[in-house]
Amino acid sequence: MIPRSWLFCPGERTDRLAKAVAAADVAVADLEDAVHADRKDAARAAVVAALRADPAAASRTWVRINNDGVHTAADLDALSGVEFAGIVVPKASLKSVREVAAHSSVPLLALVETAAGLWEAAEVAAHERVVTLSLGEYDLAVELGVARPDVDEEPLAWARSRVVAAAAATGCAPPPAPVATTIEDADRYRADTRRLGRFGFFGRMCIHPRQAAIVHEVLRPGEEEVRGAREVVRAAEEAERTGATVLVVGGRLVDPPVVHHARRILALADCD
User: Fold this and answer.
1) Do 221 and 265 meet the contact criterion of CB atoms below 8 Å apart?
2) C-alpha triplet 154, 157, 163: angle, nearest 5°
3) Which of 53, 135, 188, 266 is disulfide-compatible with 178, CB 3.0–4.6 A?
4) How far apart are CA 155 and CA 67, in angstroms?
């Protein structure tokens, strides 16, 4: 099942890391933006110790490394030989993804945060180790000279579609929607997450456990939707058993993408 929620927490706060694993499908131990330059070494050591201490949690923990030419090598060296789920590559470009992949064997999520990274999003997504992309919209907005997404998201609409299309074109998992700084306004966050889902994102990157809970709520299918999906899957299985080449459910012709979507609905219904 594709993760619904990716919950970031400061790498040096391993107490929050344990809570993130409990609250979200994926915890992201952050060695980059959430850690002051003077605390990089301590955060790195704390994350490695936490990953080694709890293999079950480590299997659902990704690590956002630094991509600054200063701390990157130390991050990758420290993580070498440690079991964990994957690496989030910030300010991702084809060059940086290749460099990280050359030093680590885990899956990668490429976080597109620069104009250069956005321009080569399809090439980044096509790398064999990249499982999906996402957008770091606040950094990208600064570089492009456009409004922050919490002020006016329209200027970044094309960037969002470009990342979704790059992932789809290369067979990656659909991207998790970008982080939002909204924590207190649950209704706004819920509506925004639903809208981003209609544009091709799946789930969301989160900065608070309350956000992860909302993402799960948004993605949880309703009873009628589940009933319809079960009917489609049952019909598809019967058609496969009998060798039927035409599948009709409720007077509607059903093709393989509809069956695939129905299976995903049932998988979501089984979550939590």
Assistant:
1) yes
2) 160
3) 135
4) 26
Q: Which domains does the chain have, with CATH numbers?
A: 5-219 (3.20.20.60), 223-269 (no CATH)
Run of H or E including 125? helix 121-126
* Edge-to-edge strand ranges of the sheet holding 130-135: 130-135, 108-112, 86-89, 61-64, 26-30, 5-10, 204-206
Residue 158: burial class (beta carbons within 10 Å; 0-12, 13-18, 19+)? exposed
Supply φ then ψ for residue 36, to 5 degrees: -65, 150
| Token pair listed for 107 | 């899956």
Which residue shows structure tokens 């300010």? 91
Residues with Cβ within 8 Å of residue 8, at least 6 apart in sequence: 20, 28, 30, 34, 64, 179, 205, 206, 207
Q: How many CB atoms lie within 10 A of CB 109?
A: 27
Under 8 Å between Cβ of 28 and 54: no
Q: Please answer whether residues 121 and 94 qualify as being in contact, where contact means their C-beta atoms are separated by less than 8 angstroms.
A: no
Place of tokens 């990089």: 40
What is the CA 255 to chain-centroid distance, rounded? 28
Per DSSP, what are the bridge partners of residue 228?
A: none
